[in-house]
Amino acid sequence: MDLKVALNIPDCHIPWHDEGAYSIMLEVAKHVDKKTGIDEINIMGDYADFYWVSLHSKLPEAMSMHHTLKTEIDTVRQKLEELRTLFPKAKIQFIEGNHEYRLARYLTAKAPELYDFFTVQDLFRLDDLDIIFHPFGKAQLVRCLGTDYCLRHQPFNMGKHCAAGTAHSKCISLGFGHTHRKQSYTFMDALRRELTCYSMGWLGDRAAPVFSYMDTDNWAQSFQFCFAYGKDWWVQPVDIKNGRAYYDSYIFKA
Q: In order along the chain (254 residues), what is the average pLDDT of each group of 10 residues?
């Protein structure tokens, strides 16, 4: 029986990602891959932002010809190609978030005839990169490394204590993105199962103009590794603070 390793990448909102934080994530991942290998990479949704097809009102300060829909799609493709090049043997899964789902919602509202003509899978060439796609929705649930630790984009409870609320509402061990917050909560159910939920944080740039509507936030830059030995699993969050991360006795810098 071998130890297996997964890299879980929370919300990036490309092209509004933090390039420094993203590069730190890659450097730590390459470090882990060199030592133990990375068996699985899970993109946790909102990897892309799809700002231009949002049905919400656009912010004037965010409307820039430097970040058109085409440049966003091109940038996401480049990042996905980079992941596949760096980790050629890893199983890569793309868990669709509500921001990727903006494309389907926009087409349904504005051009239903083109609904199945432009898809996330095709635009990002996921099949060509051997990336498995998990669509957004109520049924979205993905096992991490085949264990009882599951993944989806949104929590099952959107409140202030999203990790605790999700654990108690569904009695599940779950990792999720969406909130941009960093939380963990563990409890023991009546069957003496230890259940833990994690809100993973994000890798976006809070200074980007698309987020200027936020007066204050409690968002935290972080990503996560999961280690599995058989059905047992352990999670290690990696926090990024002021352009630095500490992992395995090393400081990684942007």
A: 94 97 98 97 98 83 77 97 98 98 94 89 97 97 98 95 95 97 94 94 94 84 97 97 97 94
Q: Full-prediction pTM beyond 0.90?
A: yes
| Highest CATH level, class, for 3-253 | alpha beta
Instruction: Answer whether 42's CB lies under 8 Å from 8's CB.
Output: yes
What pLDDT was estimated at residue 219? 96
Query: Is the Cβ–Cβ distance between 180 and 158 less than 8 Å?
Result: no
Residue written as tokens 């903006």? Answer: 102
Residues 6+ apart with CB under 8 A from 252: 24, 27, 28, 31, 244, 245, 246
Nearest partner of 17 among 78, 58, 101, 86, judged by Cα: 78
How much is the pLDDT for 1? 65
Report d(CA 56, CA 64) in Å as an integer: 17
Q: Residue 169, SS3?
A: helix
Q: Going by C-beta distance under 8 Å and a sequence separation of 6 or more, which residues neighbour residue 66?
A: none
Domain ranges of the chain: 3-253
Angle at 56 between CA 153 and CA 111, to 5 degrees: 90
- d(CA 222, CA 235) in angstroms, rounded, equals 13
For residue 59, what pLDDT is reported?
Answer: 74
Cis-peptide, bond into residue 135, ω within 30° of zero: no
Q: Are strands 142-143 and 149-152 parallel, antiparallel or unpaired?
A: antiparallel
Report the amino acid identity of residue 83: L
The whole-number pLDDT of residue 212 equals 83
